[in-house]
Amino acid sequence: RETEALDRRVAGRSHVIARTFDRVCSVLERLGYLTGDTVTADGKRLGGLYNELDLLAAECLRRGIWDGLPAAELVACVSTLTFESRQPDDRQPPRLPKGRVPDVLATMARIWAELDQMEKDSHLDFLREPDSGFAWAAYRWASGVKLETVLGETADLTPGDFVRAVKQLIDLLDQIASAAGGGELTGTARSAIDALRRGVIAYSAVAD
Questions:
Q1: C-alpha distance across the termini of the chain, in Å
Q2: Beta pairing partners, 52
Q3: How many Å apart are CA 102 and CA 120, to the nearest integer?
C-alpha cells in the first residue's frame, strides 16, 4: 500500500510538471519565442538571459525600451529586474533619477503587467513585479558618487546588501550586453559595468 501510494504521488507530480511545461511553452509560442518545437531567434536570445524576470528583460530588448539610454540610466532601469526590497509594501515610493528613467520604468511596468496577465490566463505565476527600490543607489554609484553618500541617501541599505545588489546587477548587464548582439546597447551595457565595477565592488571581486 505504501509503494502504491508513493507511485501515485510521483505520478501526480509528474503530471503537474508536464502540464506546467506545456503552459510555459504555450505562453512562449504566443510571444514568438517558440514556433512549435522550434526555438526562434528571439527565443535563443531569451535563452541567454538568466534572471527571475528574464522574460521581461527579453521583451525590453526586443521592443527597444532601453535603446539610447546613458549608462547610468540603463543601470537604474535594469536594477529593477535584479533587486527585491525587504521593506513593507506601504513604504514611500522610492526616489528615481530624472531624465528618461521614470518613463522607461513606467513602460517596463506596463510590459510586466501584460506578461503577468498572459501567465495568469495560462494558470502560471512566475514573474514578480519589478522593484525600483535600488534604482537611485545604482544610478548614483554608476555616476561616480562616493559609497558613504550613496548609503546615506538610501534607507535600510547596508554595505553588504549594496555589494550583493551591484554584483547581481553587473551579472545581468553582462547578459544583456551579449544578448543585444553587438549594437549600441551592448556598448552602453559594457560602459555601465565599468562604471559599477569600482571601489568596494572592484575590491570584493578581487577577494572573491
A1: 52
A2: none
A3: 27
- Is the torsion defined by CA of 125, 127, 129, 133 positive or negative? positive
Query: Computed from CA positions of residues 127, 150, 147, 156, in that sequence, does the dihedral angle turn out positive or negative?
Result: negative
Cα torsion 58, 62, 68, 73 to 10°: value is -20
pLDDT digits (tens, 9 = 90+) for 54-86: 999 999 999 999 999 999 999 999 999 999 987
Strands (E), the chain: 34-35, 38-39
In degrees rounded to 5, what are phi and psi of residue 206? -65, -40
The whole-angstrom separation of Cα 114 and Cα 120 is: 10
Is 159 a residue whose pLDDT tops 70?
yes
Cα(123)–Cα(175) distance, rounded to whole angstroms? 29
Give which of 177, 154, 171, 156 is closest to 205, Cα–Cα: 171
Q: How confident is the model at residue 207 (pLDDT cuts 50, 70, 90)?
A: low
SS3 assignment, position 83: coil
